[in-house]
Every structure is written in structure tokens, then in C-alpha cells.
Amino acid sequence: MKEQVRALEEAGFSRTQTDALGGVLGSERGFMRWGLGVSVARSLAMSTKLPIRARSRTGLSLRKLMPTHDLILAGGRVIDPSQDIDTVADVAFSDGKVAAIGANLPRDGADVRDVSGKLVTPGLIDLHTHVYWGGTSIGVDPTDYAKRCGTTTMIDAGTAGAGNFAGFRKHVIEPCDARILAYLNVSFAGIFAFSDTVMVGESEDVRMLHPRACLHVANLNKDLLVGIKVRVGARASGSMGYQPLDIAIEVAEEAGLPVMCHLDWPPPSRRDVVSRLRSGDVLTHCFRPFPAAPARGDGRIREEILEARERGVIFDIGHGMGSFGFDTAAAMLDAGFLPDAISSDVHSLSIHGPAYDQLVTLSKFLLLGMDLKDIIAASTTGPARAIRRPDLGTLAPGSIGDATIMELVDGPVAFKDSLGATKTGDKSLGLSGVVINGAWWHGA
Question: Which of 89, 102, 347, 381 is the most buried if burial means most Cβ atoms within 10 Å?
Fold first, then answer.
């Protein structure tokens, strides 16, 4: 019984509280009968409003100390890289938050979902999406997308700029059950002409780049904004080269935000772009094929890429239509260079392939031999770090109550990269359920 009492004290209970609880249980047999080990002690500490009023041993009810939960995911394989957890356990949610992880958590009054044989992870975060649906040609419906692949948080990668962010917020972000956060495009109109028939880079015209307007809207929407987005390259910025990136960084510095930078075909050069990025800035499309690939043809990682990682630049996949190559990815992984974030870059074109969605994108890294725990980290803790939201991408008690329930599906599955190369894998990730703000999301 001493070990269990010590566990309670380590979990935050006072001597009065542990003495009282010991009196209710009465003996080591009582502790064992209630399964009161470290995990339940921690559950008690998280779920009980401390301090508990001191009462006589005869007047203290165990039921009042034992936690009650709104939802329990029972018996799944819990993988939470933020806590270095990979074990079969229950996950409990109360009041919209994660309450506890442990074996045989108290079930009284809870909505219990049997997820045995499934993977239970923190709510997946897709760091690069385009979900200004109905307001732009590039956007997809965020609710349909979340139902499709279990992303509880979608980060819109600059679909809207200062000129139309208010509409994005009111008509798409606020009504959506799943969480949408956003990068604000440095271009006033955002990504305004992106389709299979019309394609105009929003950073091509200097008249669209108004730093004061961008900063004003950024300051008005800091509750939803995670950074400033800029697209550079021959297709996105044309003859402007890297100048839109310099403007975006200047706005970001004033707003106290990071930058997410898209790089497509040169010019500008990969070195000119990557050398400008600061610690905490994100380079998306980081495993793109030649040209502007991060690795040489012989597999060696380019010096500016290694220097950028050392500097603290964050590397995001951003699959999309043209920005992911199997050969590049294999070279980078073989060299031990794992992405910080794996994202889909889903939009009105890539949702039909080759990216499709977040689960398909994650499954490609199973095919490439990346460890499952590292894959989950790149869709939870990695993007959470990029957006500076440690309360997301984790199942730590007290954090936001989001979870994604998946299963590993056996069987041959064909995947394509952005060049049309095909590889066949023997496993893929399938969606089994979604928890948003501590409740089972029936929309999924």
C-alpha cells in the first residue's frame, strides 16, 4: 500500500487527502481491488478539483474522489510522441480536455468507445491546407475534408490575404466544427486565380504586396493567425523573385509571427530563398523533386538545407500537385533528414490526386520505411511546434481534447508522387473515428 500512497503524493495529493483515501480503501487489498496505481493516481489528480476538503475517514466517499469522464476511448494503442507514449491504454476526456491516460479508467457515466485494435493519437494537424471553400477557386470544404481524413486542426496556408480574410473567418472558419487556423497571405488578394484553367501567381505583381494592410489584418486576427504566407518561384512570383519573401519577413517581424514560404521552380534559387529563413520559419514543399530539390542527384543533402535546419528552420512536406517526389524523399530519409511536418497541401486540384488527403500522404511515409511514431509526430507535435500551439498535437492531461482514431489497413495499395512515379505499399492508414473538444464527432 505504501507504493500506491507514494504515487498519490507524487501525483499532487496532500498527506490529508492520501490518508483519507487510504481510510476509505482500508488496506492494500482495497488499493488492489480499485486498481489504484500510478496511472489512476494521476487520473485522480487531474480529475479532482484540489484541494479536497479534509473530512473524517468515515465521512469521505471514494466515489467523490474517483474521476468522472465524458468520453473514454477504451483499449486502443495510444501513440503520443509528445509524451513518448506507445502503449495499450484508455484515454479519458472531461470538459473538452484530455483528462487521463491509463488502464481501466473509471467508466461511470462516460460515453465509452471500444477502440481495441485501433491507433489512438492526438488530433491530427495538417499544416498545409487550402480550405477557403466557396470564396476562392483553390479551396476545398473543410468539414468534408476533416471527415475524410480525421484532421482535427487544419492550417490554411495563405489562401486569404488582407483583402478577403474577414470573409474567410466569418463564412468558413467560425462555422466549422473542426479547428481552422491560418497563415495570412502577404498578397492582398490571397491566392485568387488557381484552377486547371486559370493560374496567376499572387506574388507576381508588386501592387498586390501591401505590407501595412497585411500587418493591420494580422494584428486584428492574432487569435486565429499562425504566421505570414508567401509563395515564391517562377510560377508564384515571376520576375519578382525573392522580393515578396523579404516583404513577408518584414511584416512577420513587426507582427511577431513566423513565415511559411512556398518555393517552386527557380528563379529565385533555392539558396537565395532558404538562406533568408529564420528560426521558426517554415519551408514548405521541402521534399520536392528537381528543380529546387533539397538533395543532389547523388543523394547528398545540400549545404544550405543543413544550415537552415541547424538554424531552426522547420521543414514541411506540403505534398500538393507538384511538390513531392519519391526519389527526393528516399534520399532525404536515407540521409537521416526527417521532415518536421508531413502535410497534404490539399486544394481543389490535389484532392483528386496525387496528394488526396492527409492519411494518404502519411501512408506514403509508411511505404518509405519511416517509423510510425515519427510519422505521427510529423502530424502532431511537429506542426504544433510550427504554429506555436503546445496545447495541440498532444494527449497530455489538461490539453485540448482532440484525438484521431485510425487503423493500419493491410493489403497492396498504389501511391503516386508528383512526377507520376508509382510505388506499391502493403499498408495504409484508415480513419476509424474523431474526437473534437472532448466529444465523439458524429460527423466523421
Answer: 347
Is residue 251 within 8 A of residue 309, CB to CB? The reply is no
pLDDT at residue 44 greater than cutoff 60? no
Please enumerate in sequence order all residues whose Cβ is within 8 A of that of 176, keeping only pairs 6 or more positions apart, or say none: 142, 143, 146
Tell me: the pLDDT tens digits for 343-390? 999 999 999 999 999 999 999 999 999 999 999 999 999 999 999 999
Across the range 149-170, mean pLDDT stands at: 98
User: Would you say 128 and 344 are in contact if contact means Cβ atoms under 8 Å apart?
Assistant: yes
Q: Is it the case that residue 251 has pLDDT exceeding 70?
A: yes
CA distance 364 to 405: 18
Paired residues of 366 in beta bridges: none
- pLDDT at residue 22 tops 80: no
Q: Which domains does the chain have, with CATH numbers?
A: 1-67 (no CATH), 122-432 (3.20.20.140)
